[in-house]
Amino acid sequence: MTYRTSLTALALAGLVALPSPAAAADAGPDASTAATPGPSSGVSSVHWTSCPDYSDEALLSLRVTEEQIPAFRALMKRLECGTVSVPLNHRDPGGRTIDIAVTRLAATDGARRLGALAVLPGGPGNSGYLDPILRAALRNQEMAKLNERYDVIGFDPRGVGYSTKVACPITPVGPQEPGTLTEEAARKIYAAQIAANQRCGRSDPAFLGQLTTENVAEDLDLVRTALGERTLNLLGFSWGTRLGMVYRSRFPEHTGRAFLDSVAPPWTRLDQHMKDSAEAAERDFGRMAAWLARRDETYGLGATARQVREGVAKLVRAYDTNPKIYTDLRRPVDGSAVADLARRNSTEWTRAGRALAELRTATGTTAPPTVKELLGAPMTGTPVPGVPEALNMTMNLAVACNEDGSRAAFDTAWRDYQRLVKRHPATGRAWGPGFMCAGWPLPVQQATLKRGGGSLVLAGHLHEFMSVYDWTLQTRRAVGGTVYTVADDVHVSTTRVPECAADVVRYFETGRIGRGCAGSAIPS
Q1: Each residue of 412-424: pLDDT tens digit?
Q2: How many angstroms separate the Cα of 260 from the Cα of each of 140, 205, 231, 342, 521?
Q3: Would you say 192 and 173 are in contact if contact means Cβ atoms under 8 Å apart?
């Protein structure tokens, strides 16, 4: 499960928040759309509309390659786009209503159709509008087979993309100066986070208080009804795995086969989430250190894993003591930046090792090339005209904080942070204190998970830190299911690796699944 990235939050992924395109306004409400009053007449159908039109530049920003653009456009001609009206508050079905943006890519083999499969996006706050194309039909040849016998359903959860949403002015809350985080600076961050969270939470509490996983699950079931489906099969990623658990617990009779990749824990406490993730990140760095040590002639970081560990921990301390500000890099390079490089997954070990080696000897005023490449990404929230929203930060914050059972006071969060940095000398500084939900003014709301007897596969990745493998085992104990083990450290990689994706498609076609797959390969 991915929560928003900043020094005050769980820095779990470099996702970019982007605005909805005005050109696609006919596909659903734009960013200013608020919930509208009116009686609910019950959901019976989808209000189908024309689909958005995207420029080549927009598609490239969505990581569609130039070679894939013709195939994407051909799939867009098949994609159906619409909205479903749902209650803002499901306990008050006659009150305000909001729109949920929905897409459908109909099965190509209608005679052998098995049903509808909903793709559950990550986040919370990620868009799923184009997922039938991006996560299924266009991902690879194996995943494309999913659309032969299934209608693939995408949607933007409430608060995201083309669905009804609101926006808080979310600004980064962090230390003004790079280097070691002091208690004095942390207290200022904590106070600023409280003020920002109270401004946001009180800006539209009637809407923000209804941004929960359980309400998204309720919305999804009304989408199922509107589509005329008796059941929904589920393919969930990251936070979408929690959505899948909640949907299955709430609507077991309407849940078909479910495959959940990079499984969220069965609880919602951000303090425990960060503690577990930080431990897993440091463990995975041990694998990276051993890999770098075997290539000491290339990287020069140490001939043994221990030497690499000690060298990187020393580099963290050195850059915290003497941070560097490069003229061509927006982000200062201090210990947190070094630790961020140390917790990269195996697909980036080659570049991360090169960047760490560069930082050992860097002397100029401009950033070394690989450091710039890895740490010079655009800031979150950079507007790109014509591109559909990838991550809605208001929804991310609201869901995380509405469901956070910790909301630690400063002294507790500061003590936990100091302990985390001490225990994890190579990667710990990549995390900030757990202040994300400090001062959030709305009550805690947590869904109840239930064991079920239906078909469920929980795909856990042995070495990743964004969704810790032990969470997969905890979730199985809570809700049942079969564990599918992916022997890598890469978040939601299962459908990207053809051999693993073939297992996913075979599961949805037959209901049978093996014990796991190798996942993403370690660089040679």
Answers
A1: 999 999 999 999 9
A2: 19, 31, 17, 28, 21
A3: yes
